[in-house]
Amino acid sequence: MAHTHYHGSSPTGRRLAWSTIITLSFVLAEAVTGYFSHSLALLSDAGHNFADALALIIAWYGVWIALKPSTARRTFGYHRVGTLAALVNSVSLVVIALLVFWEAIERLRHPQPVQSTPMIIVATIAILMNTVISLWLRGDAKRDLNVRSAYMHMLGDAISAAGVVGAGFVVAFTGASIADPLVSILIGILILWSSWGILKESVNVLLEAIPAGMNMNEVEQTIARVHGVLEVHDLHVWTIGSGMICCSCHVMVNEQSVRSGENVLRTVTEKLKANFGIDHTTIQVEVEGCDPNDMFCVQRIAEHQHN
Questions:
Q1: Which pLDDT tens digit goes with each residue over 244-288?
Q2: How far apart (Å, rounded) are the C-alpha atoms in residues 167 and 157?
C-alpha cells in the first residue's frame, strides 16, 4: 500500500535556522540591557528568549533527523524524535516559568529601582522579532507538533514582551517598580499556559493515545458500515509522529465475503484515509465461524465458494 508522510522540508529547516540566529543575537542584547537597567521583567523575558532559541535548535534537529530513512532497527524511522523535541521544549518552558515565579517573589520582597526606558525600547524590538518569527513558523506549526512547540515559544514571547512594555510605561509614569515583578508573574503564567497543550499532546503521542479530536466510536462505525464487514475488534489508532497516524484492527466477514476480501481491505483503508487521515493501516480479516488461526477452515470455505 502506497502512502506518503510529512517529514518537514528544507524551507522549514532554513526558517528555523535563521530564527535561531536572530533570537540568540537578541537574547544577548536583552540580557545586557536588563542587567544594567535592573529590570527583572526584561531579564525574565531574555531567559524566555534563550529558551526560545534552544526550542528552535531542538525543533530544527527534529525536522532534520525526520528526513533520515527507516532502518532494520528503527522500522518507523525517526518520526518520534520530533515528539521528544516537543516534550523537551514544553518541559523547559515549565522550568523557566518556575524560575520566573521565584525571582519575582524575591523582587516583591526586596524591591529595586527599575529604568523604564531600556525596558520599553528592547521589549518593543522583541515584539517585532518574535512576531515575525511566529509568522514564519505558523504554516508548519499547523501540521507538525515539533514546530508547533517552537512556534508557541515565539508567540508566547511576543505577548510577554508586550507585557514588559506595559510594565515599562507604568514605571515611567507612576514610578511603581512593583509593576516589574507583577508583570514577570503574568509572563510566568503565560509560559505555563503555552506549554501545557504541547506537553499534553507530546505525552499522549508517546503513550500511543489516539490523536486529539479523533472519536474511536466513529472510526469503528466507519469500518463496520463497509459492505461485507460483520464485526470490528482489536481496534487501535495511534500516532507515530506528526502527519503519521496508524491503525490496526481485526474485521470479521461472512463466507460470501471471503473471496472479495481484497475489496473489503481496500474500502476500509480508503475510508480511514479520507475520514480520519489514517494513512498506515494494518487489517486482519477473519471469517465468521472460523478460528482466526485455523487457516484450514478459511481455505476450505474459500475453496467451497470457488467450486
A1: 899 999 998 876 666 667 788 899 999 999 999 998 999 988 877
A2: 15
Q: Are 123 and 42 in contact (CB under 8 A)?
A: yes
- At the second CATH level, the architecture of 10-206 is Up-down Bundle (1.20)
153 touches 51 (CB < 8 A)? yes
Identify whether the C-beta of residue 164 lies closer than 8 Å to the C-beta of residue 45: yes
pTM, entire model = 0.72
Q: What are phi and psi of 184, to 5 degrees?
A: -60, -40
CATH code, 216-306: 3.30.70.1350
> CATH 3.30.70.1350 occupies which residues in the chain?
216-306
Cβ contacts of 201 within 8 Å, gap of 6 or more: 86, 145, 212
**Beta carbons of 206 and 225 less than 8 angstroms apart:** no
Single-letter amino acid, residue 93? L
- Give the DSSP H or E segment for 301: helix 295-306
Q: Which residues contact 59 (CB under 8 A, 6 or more apart)?
A: 16, 82, 85, 86, 89, 146, 147, 149, 150
